[in-house]
Protein backbone atom coordinates (compact mmCIF):
# COMPACT_ATOMS: atom_id res chain seq x y z
CA UNK A 1 0.00 0.00 0.00
CA UNK A 2 1.51 3.36 -1.09
CA UNK A 3 0.92 6.67 0.64
CA UNK A 4 1.64 10.23 -0.43
CA UNK A 5 3.33 13.16 1.26
CA UNK A 6 3.82 16.73 0.04
CA UNK A 7 7.46 17.64 0.64
CA UNK A 8 8.37 21.33 0.89
CA UNK A 9 12.06 21.83 1.53
CA UNK A 10 15.12 23.92 0.82
CA UNK A 11 18.76 22.87 0.55
CA UNK A 12 21.93 24.79 1.43
CA UNK A 13 25.65 24.38 0.89
CA UNK A 14 27.69 23.42 3.93
CA UNK A 15 31.00 21.93 5.00
CA UNK A 16 31.88 19.62 7.88
CA UNK A 17 32.99 22.75 9.73
CA UNK A 18 29.76 24.70 9.16
CA UNK A 19 28.25 25.83 12.46
CA UNK A 20 24.52 26.30 12.69
CA UNK A 21 23.37 29.73 13.89
CA UNK A 22 21.19 30.13 16.97
CA UNK A 23 17.92 28.91 15.49
CA UNK A 24 15.74 30.05 18.39
CA UNK A 25 16.25 33.53 16.99
CA UNK A 26 14.12 32.56 13.99
CA UNK A 27 10.65 34.11 14.35
CA UNK A 28 8.24 31.55 15.76
CA UNK A 29 10.86 29.09 17.01
CA UNK A 30 10.65 28.55 20.78
CA UNK A 31 13.02 25.59 21.04
CA UNK A 32 15.34 23.37 19.03
CA UNK A 33 15.23 19.65 19.79
CA UNK A 34 18.42 17.85 18.74
CA UNK A 35 17.29 14.36 17.65
CA UNK A 36 20.75 12.90 17.02
CA UNK A 37 22.37 11.28 14.00
CA UNK A 38 20.78 8.62 11.80
CA UNK A 39 22.39 6.63 9.00
CA UNK A 40 20.51 6.51 5.68
CA UNK A 41 21.43 4.23 2.79
CA UNK A 42 19.62 4.78 -0.51
CA UNK A 43 19.96 3.24 -3.97
CA UNK A 44 18.50 5.32 -6.79
CA UNK A 45 17.10 3.65 -9.89
CA UNK A 46 16.59 4.87 -13.45
CA UNK A 47 16.73 3.65 -17.03
CA UNK A 48 20.16 3.51 -18.64
CA UNK A 49 19.36 6.68 -20.59
CA UNK A 50 18.14 8.33 -17.36
CA UNK A 51 14.57 9.14 -18.41
CA UNK A 52 13.46 9.76 -14.84
CA UNK A 53 16.29 12.17 -14.10
CA UNK A 54 15.54 14.03 -17.34
CA UNK A 55 12.06 14.80 -15.95
CA UNK A 56 13.37 15.54 -12.42
CA UNK A 57 11.79 12.36 -11.03
CA UNK A 58 13.51 10.17 -8.46
CA UNK A 59 13.04 6.54 -7.53
CA UNK A 60 14.92 5.14 -4.57
CA UNK A 61 15.02 2.23 -2.15
CA UNK A 62 16.15 3.49 1.25
CA UNK A 63 16.97 1.83 4.53
CA UNK A 64 17.44 3.63 7.81
CA UNK A 65 15.39 6.43 9.35
CA UNK A 66 11.69 6.38 10.12
CA UNK A 67 10.55 6.17 6.48
CA UNK A 68 12.53 3.24 5.12
CA UNK A 69 11.06 1.85 1.94
CA UNK A 70 10.58 2.67 -1.72
CA UNK A 71 10.05 6.34 -2.62
CA UNK A 72 9.04 8.05 -5.87
CA UNK A 73 9.23 11.84 -5.99
CA UNK A 74 7.39 14.03 -8.51
CA UNK A 75 8.26 17.73 -8.92
CA UNK A 76 5.38 20.11 -8.21
CA UNK A 77 7.16 23.48 -8.11
CA UNK A 78 10.56 24.78 -7.09
CA UNK A 79 11.37 23.22 -3.72
CA UNK A 80 8.09 21.27 -3.66
CA UNK A 81 7.70 17.59 -4.48
CA UNK A 82 5.13 14.88 -3.94
CA UNK A 83 6.69 11.80 -2.40
CA UNK A 84 4.86 8.50 -2.89
CA UNK A 85 6.00 5.79 -0.46
CA UNK A 86 5.67 2.02 -0.33
CA UNK A 87 6.98 -0.44 2.28
CA UNK A 88 10.47 -1.90 2.02
CA UNK A 89 10.71 -4.93 -0.26
CA UNK A 90 13.28 -6.61 -2.47
CA UNK A 91 11.61 -5.53 -5.71
CA UNK A 92 9.88 -2.37 -6.83
CA UNK A 93 6.21 -2.47 -5.71
CA UNK A 94 3.70 -2.60 -8.56
CA UNK A 95 1.90 0.50 -7.26
CA UNK A 96 5.04 2.61 -7.77
CA UNK A 97 6.06 0.93 -11.02
CA UNK A 98 2.68 1.94 -12.48
CA UNK A 99 3.37 5.60 -11.70
CA UNK A 100 6.55 5.46 -13.79
CA UNK A 101 5.20 3.45 -16.71
CA UNK A 102 4.55 6.38 -19.06
CA UNK A 103 8.25 7.30 -18.84
CA UNK A 104 9.83 3.88 -18.48
CA UNK A 105 7.51 1.77 -20.68
CA UNK A 106 9.09 -1.69 -21.00
CA UNK A 107 12.64 -0.49 -20.30
CA UNK A 108 14.49 -2.03 -17.36
CA UNK A 109 15.17 0.06 -14.27
CA UNK A 110 18.73 -0.30 -13.01
CA UNK A 111 20.63 1.04 -9.97
CA UNK A 112 22.43 4.24 -11.00
CA UNK A 113 23.68 5.85 -7.76
CA UNK A 114 24.04 4.86 -4.13
CA UNK A 115 23.95 7.55 -1.47
CA UNK A 116 24.94 7.09 2.14
CA UNK A 117 24.00 10.00 4.39
CA UNK A 118 24.87 10.64 8.00
CA UNK A 119 21.97 12.89 8.99
CA UNK A 120 22.20 15.09 12.07
CA UNK A 121 18.57 16.05 12.79
CA UNK A 122 17.19 19.11 14.59
CA UNK A 123 13.48 19.80 15.15
CA UNK A 124 12.39 23.45 15.18
CA UNK A 125 9.50 23.72 17.64
CA UNK A 126 6.85 26.37 18.18
CA UNK A 127 5.72 27.80 21.54
CA UNK A 128 3.21 24.96 21.96
CA UNK A 129 5.81 22.31 21.19
CA UNK A 130 4.50 21.62 17.70
CA UNK A 131 6.94 20.80 14.92
CA UNK A 132 7.54 23.70 12.54
CA UNK A 133 10.32 22.19 10.43
CA UNK A 134 13.05 19.62 10.46
CA UNK A 135 16.57 20.87 9.84
CA UNK A 136 19.28 18.33 9.11
CA UNK A 137 22.98 18.49 8.38
CA UNK A 138 23.74 15.70 5.93
CA UNK A 139 27.20 14.31 5.23
CA UNK A 140 26.69 12.57 1.89
CA UNK A 141 28.83 9.99 0.10
CA UNK A 142 27.82 9.06 -3.45
CA UNK A 143 28.94 6.10 -5.55
CA UNK A 144 28.12 5.70 -9.22
CA UNK A 145 26.63 2.27 -9.98
CA UNK A 146 25.88 2.56 -13.72
CA UNK A 147 27.66 4.41 -16.48
CA UNK A 148 30.89 4.76 -14.53
CA UNK A 149 32.40 4.27 -11.11
CA UNK A 150 32.90 7.81 -9.87
CA UNK A 151 32.47 8.91 -6.28
CA UNK A 152 31.66 12.20 -4.61
CA UNK A 153 31.20 13.58 -1.12
CA UNK A 154 29.68 16.76 0.24
CA UNK A 155 27.84 18.26 3.18
CA UNK A 156 24.52 20.03 2.91
CA UNK A 157 21.82 21.50 5.12
CA UNK A 158 18.22 20.56 4.42
CA UNK A 159 15.19 22.28 5.92
CA UNK A 160 11.86 20.50 5.44
CA UNK A 161 8.59 22.15 6.41
CA UNK A 162 6.32 20.22 8.78
CA UNK A 163 3.04 18.88 7.42
CA UNK A 164 0.50 21.69 6.90
CA UNK A 165 3.14 24.27 7.82
CA UNK A 166 3.28 27.81 6.47
CA UNK A 167 5.85 28.02 3.63
CA UNK A 168 6.67 31.55 4.75
CA UNK A 169 8.39 29.99 7.78
CA UNK A 170 11.10 28.67 5.47
CA UNK A 171 11.82 32.27 4.43
CA UNK A 172 12.52 33.15 8.07
CA UNK A 173 14.84 30.15 8.47
CA UNK A 174 16.67 31.03 5.26
CA UNK A 175 17.13 34.61 6.37
CA UNK A 176 18.83 33.37 9.53
CA UNK A 177 21.04 30.91 7.64
CA UNK A 178 22.09 33.53 5.10
CA UNK A 179 23.10 35.91 7.88
CA UNK A 180 25.38 33.13 9.11
CA UNK A 181 26.96 32.84 5.65
CA UNK A 182 25.09 29.72 4.53
CA UNK A 183 24.13 29.83 0.85
CA UNK A 184 21.39 27.97 -1.04
CA UNK A 185 22.49 24.84 -2.85
CA UNK A 186 23.06 25.00 -6.58
CA UNK A 187 21.58 21.50 -6.99
CA UNK A 188 17.86 20.78 -6.85
CA UNK A 189 18.37 17.39 -5.19
CA UNK A 190 20.98 15.00 -3.86
CA UNK A 191 20.49 12.76 -6.86
CA UNK A 192 21.04 15.59 -9.34
CA UNK A 193 24.28 16.52 -7.59
CA UNK A 194 25.42 12.91 -7.38
CA UNK A 195 24.80 12.31 -11.08
CA UNK A 196 26.68 15.46 -12.01
CA UNK A 197 29.67 14.91 -9.71
CA UNK A 198 30.13 11.19 -10.41
CA UNK A 199 29.70 11.40 -14.19
CA UNK A 200 32.62 10.06 -16.23
CA UNK A 201 35.04 12.72 -17.36
CA UNK A 202 36.01 12.76 -21.05
CA UNK A 203 39.81 12.86 -21.11
CA UNK A 204 40.07 12.70 -24.90
CA UNK A 205 39.14 16.35 -25.49
CA UNK A 206 42.28 18.24 -26.59
CA UNK A 207 43.37 21.16 -24.49
CA UNK A 208 43.14 23.55 -27.41
CA UNK A 209 40.08 23.40 -29.60
CA UNK A 210 39.35 25.45 -32.64
CA UNK A 211 36.67 28.03 -32.12
CA UNK A 212 33.62 27.07 -34.12
CA UNK A 213 32.64 29.60 -36.72
CA UNK A 214 29.50 31.37 -35.67
CA UNK A 215 26.61 31.21 -38.08
CA UNK A 216 23.39 33.14 -38.09
CA UNK A 217 20.48 31.20 -36.54
CA UNK A 218 18.08 29.67 -39.06
CA UNK A 219 14.74 31.51 -39.19
CA UNK A 220 11.97 29.53 -37.51
CA UNK A 221 9.60 27.89 -39.94
CA UNK A 222 5.94 26.96 -39.76
CA UNK A 223 7.04 23.36 -39.14
CA UNK A 224 9.19 24.44 -36.19
CA UNK A 225 6.23 26.13 -34.51
CA UNK A 226 3.80 23.30 -35.13
CA UNK A 227 6.24 20.65 -33.88
CA UNK A 228 6.98 22.70 -30.75
CA UNK A 229 3.26 22.69 -29.97
CA UNK A 230 3.02 18.97 -30.74
CA UNK A 231 5.93 18.20 -28.40
CA UNK A 232 4.35 20.24 -25.62
CA UNK A 233 1.15 18.18 -25.82
CA UNK A 234 3.02 14.87 -25.92
CA UNK A 235 4.99 15.94 -22.86
CA UNK A 236 1.73 16.80 -21.09
CA UNK A 237 0.20 13.38 -21.83
CA UNK A 238 3.24 11.57 -20.43
CA UNK A 239 3.51 13.83 -17.37
CA UNK A 240 -0.19 13.58 -16.51
CA UNK A 241 -0.28 9.78 -16.61
CA UNK A 242 0.83 9.31 -12.96
CA UNK A 243 -1.51 12.09 -11.81
CA UNK A 244 -4.46 10.26 -13.41
CA UNK A 245 -3.40 7.03 -11.71
CA UNK A 246 -3.27 8.88 -8.38
CA UNK A 247 -6.74 10.34 -9.07
CA UNK A 248 -5.51 13.90 -8.56
CA UNK A 249 -8.07 16.69 -9.13
CA UNK A 250 -8.57 17.70 -12.77
CA UNK A 251 -5.86 15.28 -13.97
CA UNK A 252 -8.15 13.26 -16.24
CA UNK A 253 -9.51 16.47 -17.76
CA UNK A 254 -6.05 17.89 -18.42
CA UNK A 255 -4.79 14.66 -19.97
CA UNK A 256 -7.85 14.47 -22.18
CA UNK A 257 -7.34 18.09 -23.26
CA UNK A 258 -3.72 17.32 -24.22
CA UNK A 259 -4.82 14.39 -26.40
CA UNK A 260 -7.46 16.54 -28.06
CA UNK A 261 -5.07 19.42 -28.67
CA UNK A 262 -2.61 17.02 -30.23
CA UNK A 263 -5.20 15.44 -32.50
CA UNK A 264 -6.56 18.87 -33.39
CA UNK A 265 -3.07 20.05 -34.38
CA UNK A 266 -2.69 17.07 -36.71
CA UNK A 267 -5.99 17.91 -38.42
CA UNK A 268 -5.56 21.69 -38.51
CA UNK A 269 -2.00 21.64 -39.83
CA UNK A 270 -2.47 18.86 -42.35
CA UNK A 271 -0.65 20.96 -44.99
CA UNK A 272 2.40 20.96 -42.73
CA UNK A 273 2.32 17.44 -41.22
CA UNK A 274 1.91 14.39 -43.45
CA UNK A 275 -1.58 12.95 -42.89
CA UNK A 276 -0.49 9.45 -43.92
CA UNK A 277 1.55 9.48 -40.70
CA UNK A 278 -0.64 11.58 -38.39
CA UNK A 279 -4.09 10.22 -39.27
CA UNK A 280 -3.46 6.77 -37.72
CA UNK A 281 -1.98 8.45 -34.66
CA UNK A 282 -5.00 10.75 -34.50
CA UNK A 283 -7.29 7.72 -34.51
CA UNK A 284 -5.48 6.32 -31.48
CA UNK A 285 -5.65 9.69 -29.73
CA UNK A 286 -9.39 9.77 -30.39
CA UNK A 287 -9.67 6.34 -28.77
CA UNK A 288 -7.67 7.49 -25.72
CA UNK A 289 -9.71 10.69 -25.33
CA UNK A 290 -12.93 8.66 -25.47
CA UNK A 291 -11.68 6.27 -22.80
CA UNK A 292 -10.63 9.16 -20.56
CA UNK A 293 -13.97 10.81 -21.21
CA UNK A 294 -15.86 8.02 -19.47
CA UNK A 295 -14.35 9.09 -16.15
CA UNK A 296 -14.14 12.82 -16.91
CA UNK A 297 -17.73 13.17 -18.14
CA UNK A 298 -19.03 11.55 -14.96
CA UNK A 299 -16.85 13.87 -12.88
CA UNK A 300 -18.23 16.96 -14.63
CA UNK A 301 -21.80 15.71 -14.30
CA UNK A 302 -21.38 15.00 -10.58
CA UNK A 303 -20.03 18.49 -9.94
CA UNK A 304 -22.85 20.12 -11.90
CA UNK A 305 -25.67 18.25 -10.17
CA UNK A 306 -24.19 18.77 -6.70
CA UNK A 307 -23.90 22.49 -7.39
CA UNK A 308 -27.49 22.66 -8.63
CA UNK A 309 -28.78 20.95 -5.48
CA UNK A 310 -26.69 23.26 -3.27
CA UNK A 311 -28.33 26.29 -4.91
CA UNK A 312 -31.85 25.17 -3.98
CA UNK A 313 -33.59 26.36 -0.81
CA UNK A 314 -33.86 23.59 1.77
CA UNK A 315 -37.64 23.60 1.49
CA UNK A 316 -37.35 22.46 -2.15
CA UNK A 317 -34.98 19.53 -1.48
CA UNK A 318 -37.51 16.77 -0.80
CA UNK A 319 -36.48 13.22 -0.07
CA UNK A 320 -32.97 11.66 0.13
CA UNK A 321 -31.76 13.64 -2.89
CA UNK A 322 -28.10 13.99 -1.91
CA UNK A 323 -27.83 10.36 -0.82
CA UNK A 324 -29.36 9.08 -4.04
CA UNK A 325 -27.03 11.26 -6.14
CA UNK A 326 -24.00 10.11 -4.13
CA UNK A 327 -24.86 6.41 -4.49
CA UNK A 328 -25.57 6.80 -8.22
CA UNK A 329 -22.33 8.75 -8.77
CA UNK A 330 -20.10 6.40 -6.78
CA UNK A 331 -21.43 3.38 -8.64
CA UNK A 332 -20.82 4.98 -12.05
CA UNK A 333 -17.42 6.49 -11.19
CA UNK A 334 -16.08 3.32 -9.59
CA UNK A 335 -16.48 1.44 -12.83
CA UNK A 336 -15.17 4.31 -14.97
CA UNK A 337 -12.08 4.75 -12.78
CA UNK A 338 -11.18 1.07 -12.99
CA UNK A 339 -11.56 1.24 -16.74
CA UNK A 340 -9.35 4.35 -17.01
CA UNK A 341 -6.50 2.76 -15.06
CA UNK A 342 -6.91 -0.41 -17.10
CA UNK A 343 -6.48 1.59 -20.30
CA UNK A 344 -3.26 3.16 -19.00
CA UNK A 345 -1.95 -0.30 -18.14
CA UNK A 346 -2.80 -1.71 -21.57
CA UNK A 347 -0.50 -2.47 -24.48
CA UNK A 348 -2.46 -0.26 -26.86
CA UNK A 349 -1.76 2.84 -24.78
CA UNK A 350 1.93 2.01 -24.38
CA UNK A 351 2.18 1.48 -28.15
CA UNK A 352 0.65 4.93 -28.66
CA UNK A 353 3.29 6.50 -26.42
CA UNK A 354 6.04 4.76 -28.42
CA UNK A 355 4.49 6.05 -31.65
CA UNK A 356 4.42 9.59 -30.30
CA UNK A 357 8.11 9.30 -29.41
CA UNK A 358 8.89 8.17 -32.95
CA UNK A 359 6.89 11.07 -34.38
CA UNK A 360 8.93 13.52 -32.35
CA UNK A 361 12.20 11.91 -33.40
CA UNK A 362 11.27 12.01 -37.10
CA UNK A 363 8.66 14.74 -37.70
CA UNK A 364 6.56 13.97 -40.82
CA UNK A 365 7.00 17.42 -42.34
CA UNK A 366 5.64 18.34 -45.76
CA UNK A 367 7.23 20.98 -48.06
CA UNK A 368 4.90 23.67 -46.69
CA UNK A 369 6.54 23.20 -43.29
CA UNK A 370 9.54 25.14 -44.58
CA UNK A 371 7.42 28.24 -45.26
CA UNK A 372 7.46 31.25 -42.90
CA UNK A 373 4.91 30.82 -40.09
CA UNK A 374 3.14 34.07 -40.93
CA UNK A 375 2.29 32.61 -44.36
CA UNK A 376 1.29 29.04 -43.52
CA UNK A 377 -0.30 29.21 -40.07
CA UNK A 378 -3.04 31.84 -40.65
CA UNK A 379 -4.44 29.85 -43.58
CA UNK A 380 -4.73 26.75 -41.42
CA UNK A 381 -6.40 28.64 -38.57
CA UNK A 382 -8.91 30.32 -40.88
CA UNK A 383 -9.88 26.98 -42.44
CA UNK A 384 -11.00 25.87 -38.99
CA UNK A 385 -12.85 29.16 -38.53
CA UNK A 386 -14.82 28.64 -41.75
CA UNK A 387 -15.74 25.14 -40.61
CA UNK A 388 -17.05 26.57 -37.33
CA UNK A 389 -18.97 29.35 -39.10
CA UNK A 390 -20.81 26.78 -41.22
CA UNK A 391 -21.83 24.75 -38.18
CA UNK A 392 -22.92 27.79 -36.17
CA UNK A 393 -25.06 28.98 -39.09
CA UNK A 394 -26.71 25.58 -39.36
CA UNK A 395 -27.46 25.41 -35.62
CA UNK A 396 -29.00 28.89 -35.56
CA UNK A 397 -31.33 28.01 -38.45
CA UNK A 398 -32.94 25.13 -36.52
CA UNK A 399 -35.82 25.34 -34.09
CA UNK A 400 -35.17 24.43 -30.43
CA UNK A 401 -35.25 20.70 -29.93
CA UNK A 402 -33.14 17.55 -30.35
CA UNK A 403 -31.91 18.47 -33.84
CA UNK A 404 -30.68 21.84 -32.66
CA UNK A 405 -29.11 20.24 -29.59
CA UNK A 406 -27.12 17.93 -31.85
CA UNK A 407 -26.14 20.76 -34.20
CA UNK A 408 -24.92 22.90 -31.30
CA UNK A 409 -22.87 19.96 -30.01
CA UNK A 410 -21.22 19.64 -33.43
CA UNK A 411 -20.55 23.39 -33.41
CA UNK A 412 -19.01 23.07 -29.97
CA UNK A 413 -16.47 20.55 -31.27
CA UNK A 414 -15.63 22.87 -34.15
CA UNK A 415 -15.22 25.82 -31.77
CA UNK A 416 -12.81 23.80 -29.66
CA UNK A 417 -10.74 22.91 -32.70
CA UNK A 418 -10.63 26.54 -33.85
CA UNK A 419 -9.59 27.64 -30.38
CA UNK A 420 -6.79 25.06 -30.26
CA UNK A 421 -5.65 26.16 -33.73
CA UNK A 422 -5.34 29.74 -32.49
CA UNK A 423 -3.50 28.66 -29.36
CA UNK A 424 -1.03 26.60 -31.39
CA UNK A 425 -0.26 29.64 -33.57
CA UNK A 426 0.05 32.15 -30.71
CA UNK A 427 3.84 31.90 -30.32
CA UNK A 428 4.33 32.58 -34.03
CA UNK A 429 1.54 35.08 -34.70
CA UNK A 430 1.34 36.83 -31.33
CA UNK A 431 -1.56 38.92 -30.11
CA UNK A 432 -3.96 38.40 -33.08
CA UNK A 433 -3.84 34.61 -32.63
CA UNK A 434 -4.22 34.96 -28.87
CA UNK A 435 -7.28 37.19 -29.28
CA UNK A 436 -8.73 34.82 -31.86
CA UNK A 437 -8.31 31.86 -29.50
CA UNK A 438 -9.94 33.82 -26.67
CA UNK A 439 -13.00 34.62 -28.80
CA UNK A 440 -13.27 30.99 -29.94
CA UNK A 441 -13.11 29.91 -26.31
CA UNK A 442 -16.04 32.21 -25.50
CA UNK A 443 -18.09 30.51 -28.21
CA UNK A 444 -16.99 27.09 -26.97
CA UNK A 445 -18.01 27.99 -23.40
CA UNK A 446 -21.57 28.90 -24.41
CA UNK A 447 -21.94 25.79 -26.53
CA UNK A 448 -20.33 23.64 -23.85
CA UNK A 449 -22.71 24.79 -21.13
CA UNK A 450 -25.60 24.05 -23.47
CA UNK A 451 -24.32 20.50 -24.09
CA UNK A 452 -23.74 19.96 -20.37
CA UNK A 453 -27.38 20.85 -19.77
CA UNK A 454 -28.45 18.25 -22.34
CA UNK A 455 -26.38 15.56 -20.58
CA UNK A 456 -27.62 16.70 -17.15
CA UNK A 457 -31.26 16.40 -18.23
CA UNK A 458 -30.70 12.81 -19.34
CA UNK A 459 -29.18 12.02 -15.93
CA UNK A 460 -31.98 13.78 -14.07
CA UNK A 461 -34.60 11.73 -15.91
CA UNK A 462 -32.79 8.57 -14.80
CA UNK A 463 -32.53 9.74 -11.19
CA UNK A 464 -36.18 10.77 -11.12
CA UNK A 465 -37.24 7.35 -12.42
CA UNK A 466 -35.10 5.60 -9.80
CA UNK A 467 -36.54 7.77 -7.03
CA UNK A 468 -40.08 7.11 -8.19
CA UNK A 469 -39.47 3.35 -8.36
CA UNK A 470 -38.16 3.43 -4.78
CA UNK A 471 -41.28 5.21 -3.54
CA UNK A 472 -39.52 8.59 -3.13
CA UNK A 473 -40.82 11.91 -4.36
CA UNK A 474 -39.33 12.97 -7.70
CA UNK A 475 -40.23 16.65 -7.12
CA UNK A 476 -36.66 17.92 -6.70
CA UNK A 477 -35.39 16.01 -9.72
CA UNK A 478 -38.15 17.52 -11.83
CA UNK A 479 -37.35 20.98 -10.49
CA UNK A 480 -33.68 20.55 -11.43
CA UNK A 481 -34.72 19.34 -14.88
CA UNK A 482 -36.64 22.56 -15.36
CA UNK A 483 -33.62 24.60 -14.30
CA UNK A 484 -31.49 22.81 -16.87
CA UNK A 485 -34.09 23.48 -19.59
CA UNK A 486 -33.94 27.17 -18.69
CA UNK A 487 -30.13 27.10 -18.80
CA UNK A 488 -30.15 25.57 -22.29
CA UNK A 489 -32.63 28.19 -23.52
CA UNK A 490 -30.50 31.00 -22.09
CA UNK A 491 -27.38 29.68 -23.85
CA UNK A 492 -29.27 29.46 -27.14
CA UNK A 493 -30.33 33.09 -26.77
CA UNK A 494 -26.78 34.12 -25.84
CA UNK A 495 -25.06 32.38 -28.76
CA UNK A 496 -25.85 34.90 -31.56
CA UNK A 497 -24.30 37.79 -29.62
CA UNK A 498 -21.19 35.82 -28.66
CA UNK A 499 -20.77 34.60 -32.21
CA UNK A 500 -21.17 38.14 -33.57
CA UNK A 501 -18.14 39.24 -31.54
CA UNK A 502 -16.12 36.18 -32.53
CA UNK A 503 -16.88 36.49 -36.26
CA UNK A 504 -15.91 40.12 -36.82
CA UNK A 505 -13.85 40.48 -40.02
CA UNK A 506 -11.18 42.58 -38.29
CA UNK A 507 -10.32 39.63 -36.04
CA UNK A 508 -9.57 37.43 -39.04
CA UNK A 509 -7.82 40.20 -40.95
CA UNK A 510 -5.42 40.71 -38.05
CA UNK A 511 -4.41 37.04 -38.27
CA UNK A 512 -3.40 37.50 -41.91
CA UNK A 513 -1.35 40.56 -41.05
How is the topology of this model organized?
Elements: E1 3-14, E2 31-46, H1 51-54, E3 58-63, E4 69-77, E5 80-86, H2 94-104, E6 110-125, E7 131-144, E8 151-161, H3 168-179, H4 190-197, H5 222-245, H6 251-268, H7 275-311, H8 321-345, H9 347-361, H10 373-397, H11 402-429, H12 431-469, H13 475-502, H14 505-511
Helix pairs in contact: 2-5, 5-6, 5-9, 5-11, 6-7, 6-11, 7-8, 7-9, 10-11, 11-12, 12-13, 12-14
Which key terms come to mind for this protein?
513 residues; alpha+beta; eight-stranded antiparallel barrel; 14 helices; 55% helix; 18% strand; globular
General description of the model:
The chain has 513 residues and is α+β, with helices and mostly antiparallel strands. It has helices spanning 51-54, 94-104, 168-179, 190-197, 222-245, 251-268, 275-311, 321-345, 347-361, 373-397, 402-429, 431-469, 475-502, 505-511, and strands spanning 3-14, 31-46, 58-63, 69-77, 80-86, 110-125, 131-144, 151-161. Residues 204-210 have low confidence and may be disordered.
Amino acid sequence: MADSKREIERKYEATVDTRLPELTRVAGVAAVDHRGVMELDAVYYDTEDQRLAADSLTLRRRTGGDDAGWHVKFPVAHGIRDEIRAPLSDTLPRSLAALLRSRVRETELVPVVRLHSSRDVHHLLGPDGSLLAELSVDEVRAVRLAGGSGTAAWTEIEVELADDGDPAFLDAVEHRLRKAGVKPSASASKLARALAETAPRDKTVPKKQRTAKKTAPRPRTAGDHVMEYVRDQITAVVALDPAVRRDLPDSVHQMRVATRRLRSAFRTYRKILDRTVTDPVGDELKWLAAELGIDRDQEVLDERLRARIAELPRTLVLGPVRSRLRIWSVARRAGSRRRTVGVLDGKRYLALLETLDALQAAPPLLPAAAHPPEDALPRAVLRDYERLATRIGHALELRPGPDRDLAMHDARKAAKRARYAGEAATVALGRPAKKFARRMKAVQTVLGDHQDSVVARDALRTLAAQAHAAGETAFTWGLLYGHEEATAAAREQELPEVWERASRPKLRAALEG
